[in-house]
Amino acid sequence: MKRLLITGAAGGLGRAMRSRLAPLADTLRLADIAPVGEAGANEEVVTCDLADAAAVHEMVAGCDGIVHFGGVSVERPFDEILNGNIIGLYNLYEAARTHGHPRILFASSNHTVGFHPQDKRLTASDPMRPDSLYGVSKCYGEALASMYHDKFGQETLILRIGSSFPKPANRRMLSTWLSYDDLARLITRMFEVPRLGRPIVWGASDNPAGWWDNGEAGWLGWRPQDSAEAFRAEVEAAEPLPARDDPAAVYQGGAFCVEPIHKK
Predict the structure, then answer these.
(1) What is the pLDDT of residues 126-153, one digit of tens each?
(2) What is the distance between the alpha carbons of residues 99 and 2, in angstroms, rounded to a whole number?
(3) Which superfamily does 3-258 belong to?
């Protein structure tokens, strides 16, 4: 690609992918409403509020691919979620439609299915059961991506991210962890395949205790290479076993299932 856009570039995933995705394009365009830092070699920095349609159209112009990490990534008051994850995502898809349909990686979330129990192994065909307003916003995003694909041919990889950090931080992440390197391998693969469509992919590494089955997206050829199991002893030593009725032990969404509705 000539130019790859990473939104949410100031966030944890944006920072982690900045160097890992650099080989995919001549230029990385790094965008966020928060400071990203100085542009390095072959980088551009753009300040953009996703709720500003004109700014989003300018941000997307000239890009051959989009990795969309932007928006609100945790439970927050509804107006924040509305601006970042609903209005902002609509603006992004309209900009992509206007500017030649660059492929999009949409960072969805496991919180679209958070009220499913941990003893149920899910496929992409299982129904959504969001655990939060944040999760609801990601359900909207998946529906929007589907409509733009069916109506306009906009290709999107819908990635239901589990927990992507340098290493698992708790017992739940032994099932949901996605390594940065496995994420970078998936993003690379989605730009390599000749036809993408709009697959739903579970964003988790090769964790033996995992809850999700990626068989429906096997044709992509992505095979995660890392595993949370390497951290099991460290995690279990640091965190006591939760009670049987603790949401962290019952629901796939964990604590999000009891998170209150946030007010300003």
Answers:
(1) 999 999 999 999 999 999 999 999 999 9
(2) 14
(3) NAD(P)-binding Rossmann-like Domain (3.40.50.720)
